[in-house]
Specification:
With about 190 residues, the chain is of the alpha/beta class. It has helices spanning about 5-15, 20-25, 30-50, 80, 90-100, 120-125, 140-145, 155-160, 175-185; strands spanning about 60-65, 70-75, 110-115, 130-135, 165-170. α6 links the parallel β3 (about 110-115) and β4. It binds zinc ion (ZN).
C-alpha cells in the first residue's frame, strides 16, 4: 500500500477528472461522449460473448496516457467456455492488460464494464490499481436476470475497503441492461 500522499500524487499527476467532474459531464459533453464510446466497445464485446454462448458481460480497459485514450484489453465473460467461475469480463480484461503491459500496476487506466463489478471484480480492479470504473447496468439488474450475485454494491466495497478507485454508474445503462434480454433471446447461455 502506498502512503496516502504518494497515492494522491500518483492519481493527481494523471490529470484525470475527479469523480465529481465525471458525474457532471456524464452523458453529455466531450467526457460523456468519450465514456459512451468506450462503453459501446464493452457492449460489442459482451455481444460477441452472447453469440459464443457466454454470459452477457463485457469489459474494456482504456489507457489514458494519450488524450483520446487507447484500448489495452477487452474481454467478455468466459465462465462457461473455460469452466472457471472467476472468468468474469473484468478479470479477463485485467489479466490481458497486465500481460500486455508486463505490469501488475494498471494505474492510468479506466475500466468500462457493461455491469457494475461484483465484489470479486471490484477487488481485482483495486489490486490492479486501475484509476476508475465506469459501468452500465447494476448488480441488481444482473441478479434480476438470474445470476447468483453477492448483493454488495461496488460503492460500498470501495468505501468500506478504503479504495481509491473512482466509480461512475449508469453509462448507457439502458443498452447495458438490454444485454440481459439479448442473452435470454439468444437461448444459448444460462445463469449461474
Ligand atoms: Zn465479477
Amino acid at each position: 500500500m502506498l502512503p496516502d500522499n504518494e497515492a494522491q500524487g500518483r492519481l493527481g499527476a494523471l490529470g484525470s477528472p475527479s469523480l465529481h467532474e465525471h458525474k457532471r459531464d456524464a452523458g453529455h459533453g466531450r467526457a460523456g461522449a468519450r465514456a459512451n464510446h468506450w462503453m459501446e466497445q464493452a457492449i460489442a464485446t459482451a455481444r460477441a460473448g452472447i453469440a459464443a454462448g457466454q454470459s452477457p458481460f463485457g469489459a474494456v480497459i482504456v489507457a489514458q496516457e494519450v488524450a483520446q485514450g487507447r484500448v489495452v484489453a477487452a474481454s467478455h465473460n468466459q465462465v462457461w467456455a473455460t469452466l472457471d467461475p472467476t472468468a468474469h469480463a473484468e478479470v479477463g480484461a485485467i489479466r490481458l492488460a497486465a500481460a500486455k503491459r508486463q505490469n501488475i500496476d494498471l494505474s492510468g487506466c479506466v475500466i468500462y464494464s457493461t455491469c457494475e463489478p461484483c465484489p470479486m471484480c471490484m477487488a481485482a480492479i483495486h489490486w490492479a490499481r486501475i484509476d476508475a470504473v465506469v459501468y452500465g447496468a447494476s448488480i441488481a439488474d444482473a441478479a434480476a436476470a438470474g445470476f447468483n450475485e453477492l448483493r454488495v454494491p461496488a460503492q460500498t466495497l470501495i468505501e468500506q475497503g478504503g479504495s481509491r478507485v473512482r466509480l461512475e454508474g449508469g453509462c448507457l445503462a439502458e443498452v447495458c441492461r438490454g444485454l440481459f434480454d439479448e442473452w435470454r433471446a439468444a437461448e444459448r447461455g444460462r445463469a449461474y
